[in-house]
Write a structure and sequence with these properties.
With about 160 residues, the protein is of the alpha+beta class. Helices cover about 50% and strands about 20% of the residues.
Length: about 160
């Protein structure tokens, strides 16, 4: 009586190849998602030509944002209030260099700390992708490289902020 399960070496190889392909797509989507999430802030920090750059002295912090007066260092207008996202490194009474997002009162930190902090979502995506690459694709060395890059990025951002 014929079996309903077809178990030949060729079928196993096709399934393993399919699994690796699917896991490769998942890992790629994770990394692309991390870049996409990071680019929303990183573009303002890294491509500063033509943008208002200056300093903000944080006067008040809420649950998610901090505010303070903006003083331009490039051609721009001094503002009584700009909003900066609150992070572990932002404290009331301190002055930070920032870039103002176009057509808004939102500012993002600039300089090395701002660049590293903008790419934090990519660091998390690299860590997640390393788990997929190690478990789903069985490429342990590649997974270690991805994990190392993610940890290095997150650690550098933590130290800089």
């Amino acid at each position: 009586m014929p079996s309903a399960v077809f178990s030949s070496p060729a079928a196993g190889a096709v399934l393993r190849c399919g699994q690796r392909a699917v896991m490769g797509v998942v890992a790629a989507l994770l990394v692309v998602g991390g870049v996409w999430a990071s680019w929303g802030t990183a573009q303002h920090v890294m491509l500063t030509k033509g943008r208002e750059r200056g300093t903000v002295t944080v006067t008040r912090c809420g649950a998610e944002t901090c505010t303070g007066p903006f003083r331009p260092l490039s051609p721009g207008v001094a503002r009584d209030r700009v909003v900066v996202d609150r992070s572990a490194g932002v404290r009331a009474g301190r002055t930070y260099t920032v870039v103002v997002k176009p057509n808004s009162d939102r500012a993002v930190r600039s300089g090395p700390a701002g660049v590293l902090f903008a790419w934090v979502p990519l660091g998390g995506a690299l860590l997640l992708a390393s788990v997929v690459v190690a478990g789903g694709m069985r490429l342990r060395r590649t997974a270690w490289v991805l994990a190392g890059a993610g940890v290095a990025l997150l650690t550098a951002a933590f130290v800089a902020v």
